[in-house]
Amino acid sequence: MNKLLLSLYVLLFASTLSAQIKSGPMLGYNTIREVLVWVELSQPGEAEFVYWHQSDTVRVRKVAVKESSNTIKFLTELLQPGTRYNYQIRVPHENYVTPTYSFTTQSNWQYRTDPPTFKMAIGSCAYLNEVAYDRPGEPYGRNYGIFNQIVEKQPELMLWLGDNFYLRDADLYSKAATFYRYSTDRATKELQPLLAAAHHYAIWDDHDFGPNDADGSYAGKQNSLDVFRSYWGNPFFGINGGPGITSAFEYNDVDFFLLDNRYHRNANNRTTGKKEMLGKPQIEWLIDALKFSDAPFKLIAVGGQILNPAAVYENYAIFPEERDFLLKRIEEEEIKGVVFVTGDRHKTELSYLKMEHTEVYDLTVSPLTAKYYNTIDEPNTLRMKGTHVADNNFAILEFSGSLEKRIMKIMIYNHLGELQWSREISRN
C-alpha cells in the first residue's frame, strides 16, 4: 500500500471511529468527591466510562446509565478531594475508545486553608446556524471561534445563562424535533473542546424552552424539560418535588442558585390576575437558600435582566410587583454578596443597586454567537459607566484572596479574546 493510500485509509478509519460519539464528552457537575460526565452516541448502544488516578494503574469501569435519545450520564464512585483523574469513554460493540481526558475534584479546603483561587466562564445566546431550518436572510449565528477563546482562558467551570440552543419554528411542540435541535447544535465541532475542558451548568431562557418570549402556557414545555434534563449535567432539576429546572450548587466558596424563569411564567402582556415570572414558591426557596448560605458571593442565574429598571422587552421590570417583592426580601433579610448573572439581551452590561442594608449587582453577559445589538441609549439608570458591550462576548470571573477579603474580578472578552473591560467586587 503506497503512502497516499495509507494516509487516506488512516483518515477514513479515524473518521469512522470518531463518528461513534456524536458530541462530548462533557463534564457536568463537580463536587469534592463526585463528578458527572455526559456523552451522546451517534447510534443507540452501550458505552463505558473508565477513570483512574493519574498516578495509579487501577481503573474504575462504569457501565452506561442511559438518559434519553442517545445521551448518557456517568457518575463516578466516591473520589478523593482535590485530585486529578484521567478518563476515557469506550463503545465496546464498535471497538472505539476516546482520547484520554481529565477532571479534578474540588478541594476540601474548609477549616483548613483559605479558599482556592479559581476562574469560571459565563455566557448566553449561542445561535448555531442550520440553513435548512433557519429563517431566510443574513445568518443569525457567527464567530464560533469564541468557544476556543473561552478554553484558552482556562476556566474550571462554565455557567450557561439561557438561549444555549435556539429552537426553530420547525422544532416546536415536537419532542423528537426538540431533541433534534439540542443534538444537532451540541454536536457543533467548535464546541467540543470547551465541553471537555470545564464543568458545565445551565439554565434556560425562551429560545431553548420554546418560542420567542415563551411562558408557562407553552404546550411543549414538558418536552423541553425532558430534553434539557438529558443534555445538561446539573446536580438536580426542580425544587420541592415540582417540575422545572431550578437548581443550586457550591463551587469552592461561592454558592450558585439556578432559577427557572419560564416553566411557571405568566404572559408578559397579561393585564388581569397575578403576573409572575419566578412564582412565590421559587422566591421563598431562594430567600431561604440565600439566608442559609455563608458564601462571600451568592451568584443567582436568571435568563433575563433583574436590576435594569427599563420596562422593555423581557426585563424583570415588566413584572414590577414581583421584582419589588424579591428585592425587598433581599433588603429586609440583609443578604450580602448577591450578584445576579443574566443573559437574554444580546448585549453586556453591569448594573448596581445600593440599598440601605445591602447592595446588589446584575452582570448581564450576552451574546456568545447570536446577533448583538447596541442599546446603550436604553434608560438603564443602574448601569455602571463603561460596561456596555455590543459584540459577541463572554465573561471570566476570577475569585481570589483570603476568605474574609475575597474578591470577584469580572473580565469581559470579545470573540477574539480581547479584554473589553474589567471590574472588581469585594466581599461586603
Kindly describe this structure:
The chain is an alpha+beta fold and 428 residues long. The protein has 2 domains: 3-104, Immunoglobulins (Immunoglobulin-like, Sandwich); 118-426, Purple Acid Phosphatase, chain A, domain 2. 19% of the residues lie in helices and 28% in strands. The strands form 4 sheets. The protein has a 6-stranded mixed sheet with strand order 12-11-10-19-20-21. Strand 17 and strand 18 (359-364) form a beta hairpin. Helix 3 (175-186) runs parallel beside helix 6 (221-231). The longest helix has 16 residues, at 3-18. The chain starts with a helix and ends with a strand.
Fold blueprint:
Blueprint: H1 3-18, E1 21-30, E2 35-41, E3 48-53, E4 60-63, E5 65-66, E6 71-75, E7 84-91, E8 96-97, E9 101-104, E10 118-123, H2 146-152, E11 157-161, H3 175-186, H4 192-197, E12 199-203, H5 206-209, H6 221-231, E13 247-251, E14 254-258, H7 280-292, E15 297-302, H8 320-332, E16 338-342, E17 349-354, E18 359-364, E19 393-400, E20 407-414, E21 419-426
Parallel strand pairs: 10-11, 11-12, 14-15, 15-16, 16-18
Antiparallel strand pairs: 1-2, 2-6, 3-4, 3-7, 5-6, 7-8, 7-9, 10-19, 13-14, 17-18, 19-20, 20-21
